[in-house]
Amino acid sequence: MFDKILIANRGEVAVRIIRTARRMGIKTVVVYSEADRDSLAVDMADESVFIGPAPAAQSYLVIDKIVDAAKQTGAQAIHPGFGFLSEKAEFADRLLAEKITFIGPNPNAIRAMGDKIESKKSAQAAGVSCVPGFIGEIEGVDHAVQISEEIGYPVMIKASAGGGGKGIRVAYNRKEVEEGFPAVRAEAKGAFGDDRIFIEKFVTAPRHIEIQVMGDKHGNVIHLFERECSIQRRNQKVIEEAPSPLLDEKTRNAMGEQAVALARAVNYDSAGTVEFVASGADKSFYFLEMNTRLQVEHPVSEMITGLDLVEQMIRVAAGEKLAIKQKDLKIKGWAIESRIYAEDPYRNFLPSIGRLRTYTTPAEGKSGDLTLRNETGVREGDEISMFYDPMIAKLVTHGPTRIAAIDAQARALDQFLIEGIADNIPFLGAVMEEAEFRSGDITTAYIKKHFPEGFEGVPPTKDQEKLLLSVAAYARAFTAKRAAQTSGQANGAHARRDWVVILDKQHHAADVALDEKGATITLDGKAYRLDTDARPGARIIQGAFDGKPFAVKIKSEPQGYQLRHRGITARAIVASPRAAELYKKIPEKQKADTSKLIVSPMPGLVISIDVKPGQEVKAGEGVAIVEAMKMQNIIRAERDGVIAKVNVAAGASVAADEVMIELE
Description:
Layout: E1 4-7, H1 11-23, E2 27-32, H2 40-44, E3 47-50, H3 63-73, E4 77-79, H4 89-98, E5 101-102, H5 107-114, H6 116-125, E6 133-134, H7 141-151, E7 155-159, E8 168-171, H8 174-192, E9 197-201, E10 206-215, E11 221-233, E12 236-242, H9 249-265, E13 271-279, E14 285-291, H10 298-305, H11 309-317, E15 334-341, E16 343-344, E17 350-351, E18 354-355, E19 358-360, E20 365-367, E21 370-376, E22 383-384, E23 391-399, H12 402-414, E24 417-419, H13 425-433, H14 435-439, H15 446-450, H16 462-486, E25 498-503, E26 506-515, E27 518-523, E28 526-532, E29 540-545, E30 548-557, E31 560-565, E32 568-575, H17 577-584, E33 597-599, E34 604-609, E35 616-617, E36 622-628, E37 631-636, E38 641-646, E39 653-654, E40 659-663
Parallel strand pairs: 1-2, 1-4, 2-3, 4-5
Antiparallel strand pairs: 6-9, 7-8, 7-9, 10-11, 10-13, 11-12, 12-15, 13-14, 15-23, 16-17, 18-22, 19-24, 20-21, 21-23, 25-26, 25-32, 26-27, 27-28, 28-29, 29-30, 30-31, 31-32, 33-40, 34-36, 34-39, 35-38, 36-37, 38-40
Helix pairs in contact: 4-5, 7-8, 12-13
């Protein structure tokens, strides 16, 4: 076994690997860029090596710097995590030449599975079910049309070297192939330097299901069952679970056997994932691709099997045989994972950067038959940088059933508090409550179907409304009682008991009777019990409401409270009956006219300014490009006009809502 390993990555995956290495008695080295100098991973590792500026192309992607760091510290092996160099065959080749062990598959396996066309050929040869399609060079548009009509519409046009959702179009007819084929080819050339394209059948009611495999250097390969990853946005996963609610035992076994057959065919010798698209209509399934690395969502597989995949990767890399046989593995319960991102769901999920002024996470560990795990690489006070992926944490819950795991996830999301930047927790909370998701009848079009105009929050149900009203009334009453005690009225007898709670302009009479364990709250004549030990200033009020567990985020505002719960963001004013009547008479504030201003929707780096003063622009025309967290956003004019003033230049940093350009 190794004495010391180097982690060629950052953030939560670096922390994840350190935890396992520490448990195994292995010392760790992390490399870090300028942006990660004060990171949690750097603090946790035994040693750290600075490798350059914040942009990954100048630090984490420079093979020479990673190799030098390993030599400098005497690390015998390197774990690449995921992303960055994890699927670069040339990196594995280099480590082989340098006699440094790569904690991942051999270079030939990476090469065999890294090219989508070649990987499909390998899959077919191994007897793996492949999507009907054309594998080979496509001569041009006419050839693409011919192929598409032989396969039958709809078809998917994909770049061979594609990834991250780029280089993909679905065509439902001849015209869409004629338009889509050259577009995908151009996109592939620009993004990957490789314009090879393939065409395959687009599966209806598609579900993204993947099989986790694990191989050693002695020819042994097992699978750790499946993960369902159908909840996606822009072809990127958002919520994952294991097992899949779609699969029966027969389909699960068939899929697992095919994944193992493919891994054996390419002499696979580490952790990897064989991805399939499955039809929700008939459970047919087809090979998509193989990811030759640890996956972001690997914790859900660990939770249902009890295995530590990082430990298995390290042991296999050190030459050990797999100690587990396929017959020893059983599915235990259900696991759900949510990716918590630094992004604003109310602004089309645009990245959000800044400092984590508050970062409070739910308690990890086991409670009864539920387990909670929070994989994160940040702490309160850390900076979320524009240079890397916007993921803050992966919140994982495990329970005896799917619904138990979902409910535990929803409660944990309510207990997760982030301030200083925007986060996608309201969106995740809304999904956990949505009926179709809870039923398990989902497809990769789930988000597009349920949130076609983007996420704008969800209205509270009647029960949730009662909870929010009660929490607001309790918070106000407790504050009033404390104020009365501070002013010398020790029993709080003069603290008001009757209030009016105004939620979404609706007025509700509330009477609050405080006691040592919480309060009895009467709303519009009906009594409810709220048990909690929350105190004034608490940012999360949690406990039981009429016997059911709850957590509500609460923030004091000049005229009341902001409340967040399960995707709901509501504002409540708690006032005396007389003041409540006055609120009814206050006219609504008119929004300022901002139609002449073009603002940055997010903080980031200005890549280009594409207009100048005096130039005419049309509605929808691109005027600038702003980049943050690997994502380029074209800023467009919202109406016709003439440019009056340009306030920023290429290379400048901009804040969210900063005025970049003004129209006459």
